[in-house]
Amino acid sequence: MRTPLNNPFQPGSDVVPAVWAGRVNQIADWRDVLRPRLLSGLFERGRTILGEPGLGKSSLVRRIADDAASRGDWVTPQIRIALGSDPIARLAGALLALAEEAGLPTSREARISGLIDRVQAISAGAAGVSAGITLRGGSREEPHVALTQLLVEIGRVAIARNNVVLVHLDEVQNIDDDNALSQVLIALGDAITRAVTVTVPGLGNIERSLPIAVYLTGLPEFDDASDTRKGATFSRRFKVVLLQPLTDDDLRSALSVFVAPGWEVTLDDGERGAVHMDPAAVECIIRACQGEPFLFQLAGERAWYADTSSVISESDVERGWNDAMAEARAHVERILSRLPAREREFLRAMAELPPTERTFSKIATTMGHEKEANAGPTSQRLDRVRGIISRGKPYTFRHRALEALLTSDWPEL
After folding, report:
1. Are 401 and 332 in contact (CB under 8 A)?
2. Which of 10, 38, 162, 243 could disulfide-pair with 211, CB 3.0 to 4.6 Å?
3. Model-level pTM?
4. Would you state the pLDDT for residue 373?
């Protein structure tokens, strides 16, 4: 009954897994706040979703994008910014695709055709385009001007169609060129704050915001960038959300369908069947993944492959996890190793102490600091920027997989 073809667990980045866990607040923000307000012509800031690797940032926004597309909204593909790539050209290409969907290239207005020509030059990465686009007459135009104008025109058509435009820029921490970052953020920020005049029957002309939703996703380092890189208006135009690991209740809720009524699958003969999961197996998966969305999908995938019966047992989870332990350990070790040395040292000192004794003063002493204040900036970054710890009384780990790696035999169960 369980086969590779009907396995609903999907570990990996940038995919929307069939077995979805948590992120209720972020999904509700899109469904109940952002989209309704944009359709009503009300201004809403863009959303910046940040977090450590494996927390499901891209998957979350792709799920939101899938919901938008199902409602008829216009959605860009995931505009993933690789190191060394040109984010201005990538954004321009995505906006041209939206313009095509909005029917702008068929416009007979010279203004629109000229605008599309300018953005096509940006998308092609024409020589010197980062310094500006050469217009007729020899004058120069900053790339963000044309990108903003095209987004505004797309937004105007979206108003007429009563839908939303969703732009998703991923791996934003990889934009290491200050000029390129400024151009991209100004283009997107100017578009979402632009007010246009529309005619409403019975009311006449009114001003409203464009129905443009912008999502930026990336590692916490992006929010740590200086305001001079992101621009003085960034915080007023984008709301930053720092993702945390999933709670055990999030995971139980996601797996509850396996307990009853069962996960529906198609059998070889075309008939329908259901795969169930023993409650003990549910708790075993929760212990294994430590709140990490990637590890949750990994544990579920391997448990599914451990047997072919209609019930996933605790022993299935254990056998599957034995095969996944090396990958799970490597995943969490990569998160730890990418941190600066001082932050790793702080976490190791914190892990050496019993949970009830993890106070700031004792952690600083364990690190060997003569002055407690020397450890202050590190603790603040681990809390506010990365979301790995919580500076309460006592300090606690938010990132439970890192805590498990540093304080126990995990990933062994």
Report:
1. yes
2. 38
3. 0.92
4. 87
